[in-house]
What does this fold into?
Amino acid sequence: MERCGLASGSQSRAVDERVTRWRDALHYRVARSDNRARTSVADRANAPSFVYLDSVSAVEKLTTAIAGAREIALDTEGASFHRFVDRIYLLQLSTRDTHAVIDPLPIGRPAGLGALLEDPSVEVVFHDADYDLRLLEQDYGWKIRHIFDTRIAAQLLGYTAFGLAALLERFFSVKLDKKHQRADWSMRPLTADMLDYAAQDTRYLLELKDRMSAELERMGRMAWAREEFALLEGTRWADEEPGMGFLKLKGARDLNRRELAVLRELVPWRDGVARQLDRATFRVIGNEQLLEIARTHPSTRDALAKLKGMPRGILDQRGGELLDAVTRGLAVPESELPRFPKAARWDRDADFDARVSALKTARDHAAKRLTLDAGVLCSRDRMEAVARRNPSSVEELLEVTELRRWQANELAEAFVAALEPHRQKTALKAAVTENSPYSD
Ligand SMILES: [Zn+2]
It folds into this structure.
């Protein structure tokens, strides 16, 4: 999903004609893919580029042709920047010798391909799998089980630039082009140039995996990667509690309860319009404008019109609905005004922050030694989980489930040592309290 573009000027020339030719030549290409001769990246750059598939039978043929592949690079394109309901608008796939771009719109769910990709003996290689996995689960119900993610691999190797563009430059000196980065993949027809661009997203991924696997092995970090990859399995969108979306709007926290009540009316109104128009919510009306309406609760069309950034079309066609939503919010009785749910509380004793800061020092030290980004080695959330548990031994630290095993292995001793002075203080305090006549 991560947008990157590699289509060079020379590649994009005459692509329209080439796409047509490839579609006609699918039989030839599929037959050729049985020949497992490995070509180098350099050879590949000059080779015919990819097959474009937009029919059930073509995808079935491809699936049969690549059925023996044990490694498949995969990418999807959605349109979250443009549409309200995101879905898969393009699927790109590469084996060692076949590259394909699939238009799923005329096809629907490519079931045979799904069976291949869900086969645990097939390693599916992504760059930044998270969003792709969510879309694949949402649209097709696919649960991919054997994953390699080149973005995660790059982070575990300590690279500071881990976008696909940076990795391809680093390993293959392939130059990038971001011209279709914000492309609307839901539009049809897609231009040949866009398809060419999309095909680049999986073209080099298997070679990239080879190179990065070798690095991970060399640095003794393959087990780290395997643990992270296994945790990607089952990634999906959680069902949101209905009607609670307004609390997630950035800036909602700064509103008072009456303003929140207005926002609680405005957000589902906007979702409804966005769904109806199948347009991304910010293209209906911006968050800033919604917050401003919640704060100022305008009661007339003129007051709405004076609002900075108020979209003309919405004002003209939906102004009445907007004012109605404001009126409903203002009519909510005091006793039913919404509030933010209380953040999860834990026993946050006085020493908690000091323990977190001691852990942070230990982590930063370890991150330097491992040449890893400190946040990759251990995020603040996880250090807080350790501080809450306040383990006095490595065994106790291993019980902190928020920590990955590889993180625990790297950090256990340093963390336990960092907490040692705080534990003595806590023990001392407890002893004093026990002996005090005033306890209870
Ligand atoms: Zn992509």
Notes: Confidence is low (pLDDT under 50) at residues 3-40, 436-440. The first strand starts at residue 51 and ends at 53. Residues 1, 3, 75, 77, 201 surround zinc ion (CB under 6 Å). The first helix runs from residue 9 to 12.
